């Protein structure tokens, strides 16, 4: 057998994992991350009463975290595929983040001076980012172990995207338990919790996403 024929024989059937397989596995990892984060949030804090969902506050928080999760999902998928264009999900993420920060700043500007501190720090600012990180870590591990099989090349970037996704999922679960109602609080402290999870993902991705 000639060298060229031998190389062609070895390469036969190789190539990227089919997109449906990646989407299917990511869906199950996403579902597991969401379920674990929700269980942890309800165990640590407890669920918000049903009456709370008659107000706009929970829906504001969920709109933010779910929008981040959707954009992070697309970014994660594209980072697993090195040749995929990442511009659209990156822009989407940036717009969602800027919109929430702008909304938080606008709300803080409208609040009376004596209430600004409460609007910014709430009652749980020292705990919120760390609790979001805590409820997100099991989901981060599940996502990274799932995506490792697809052999991402840029490990830190893919790990960051996994952390962003896990953080957004964790923040969504946390929002269902968190009593804070200030958009400024959400823009600052929820975002910090998601950023912390993303940083952990970027660091751990160097090892957990390495294909073996």
H-E order: HHHHHHHH
Integer average pLDDT: 86
Number of DSSP helical runs: 8
State the low-pLDDT regions, or none.
6-17
| Count of individual domains | 1
The fraction of residues assigned to DSSP E strands is: under 5%
Give the distance, in angstroms, between the N- and C-terminal Cα atoms: 30 Å
- Evaluate the radius of gyration: 20 Å
E-strand count? 0
User: Sheet with the most strands?
Assistant: none
Assign a percent range to the helix content.
over 70%
Estimated structural class: mainly alpha
Shape: globular
Give a verbal description of the structure.
By secondary structure, the chain is mainly alpha-helical. It has one domain (19-208). It contains eight helices and no strands. Helix 2 (19-44) packs antiparallel against helix 6 (128-148), helix 2 crosses helix 7 (155-175) and helix 6 (128-148) packs across helix 7. It is globular and about 55 Å long.
């Amino acid at each position: 057998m000639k060298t060229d024929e031998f190389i062609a024989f070895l390469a036969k059937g190789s190539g990227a994992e089919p997109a449906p397989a990646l989407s299917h596995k990511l869906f199950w990892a996403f579902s597991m991350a969401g379920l674990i984060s929700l269980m942890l949030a309800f165990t640590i804090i407890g669920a918000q009463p049903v009456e709370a969902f008659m107000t706009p506050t929970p829906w504001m928080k969920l709109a933010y975290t779910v929008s981040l999760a959707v954009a992070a999902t697309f970014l994660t998928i594209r980072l697993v595929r090195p040749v995929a264009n990442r511009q659209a999900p990156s822009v989407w993420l940036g717009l969602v983040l800027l919109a929430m920060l702008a909304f938080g700043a606008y709300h803080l500007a409208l609040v009376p001076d004596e209430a600004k501190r409460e609007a910014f720090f709430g009652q749980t600012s020292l705990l919120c980012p760390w609790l979001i990180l805590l409820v997100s870590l099991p989901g981060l591990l599940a996502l990274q172990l799932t995506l490792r099989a697809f052999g991402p090349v840029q490990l830190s970037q893919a790990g960051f995207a996994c952390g962003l996704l896990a953080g957004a999922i964790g923040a969504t679960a946390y929002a269902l338990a968190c009593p804070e109602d200030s958009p400024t609080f959400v823009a600052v402290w929820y975002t910090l919790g998601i950023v912390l999870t993303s940083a952990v993902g970027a660091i751990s991705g160097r090892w957990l996403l390495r294909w073996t």
